[in-house]
Amino acid sequence: MVCALVMLPIDGQNGAARRPLAGVVLWGACTTEGAGLSDRDDLPVLSVAGSEDGLSDPAATTDHRAHLPPNTVMVEVGGMNHAQFGAYGDQRGDGRARIGDTEARTALADAVTAFPEQR
Q: Cα(114)–Cα(119) distance, rounded to whole angstroms?
């Protein structure tokens, strides 16, 4: 399962993207060599993992770190499982959440909101 948001710069008048990709936000996701991101030092990337994610666990995220740009910001939300990155309920193989959905989503929103200042 890959959850990703792509940050696009938007023209305020008509909503059309006017510039190249501004950044990538990964939620509970690992990248592969084929993603072609490791040499993109011009591309800000945020990777958010949940400590209880049994599908894209923090160890896997760390193992795949070499496939991301060197300036990638890595955030781990303590107690968050994979299902809390979305709203699709329990998934086989996922860990047990140690925090509530509201707390998980607040931590996720905080990580994304802080990202532009961290790069």
A: 9
Parent domain of 101: 3-9+20-31+41-118
- Is the whole-model pTM more than 0.85? no
Q: What's the number of domains the chain is made of?
A: 1
pLDDT in tens, 13-69: 555 555 566 788 889 888 877 778 888 888 899 999 999 999 887 778 788 888 999
State the virtual CA torsion across 104, 53, 5, 74 in degrees, nearest 10: 90
> 40 and 26 in contact (C-beta within 8 Å)?
no
Contacts of 73 (CB under 8 A, 6+ apart): 44, 45, 46, 47, 115, 118, 119
Residue 10 has pLDDT above 90, yes or no: no
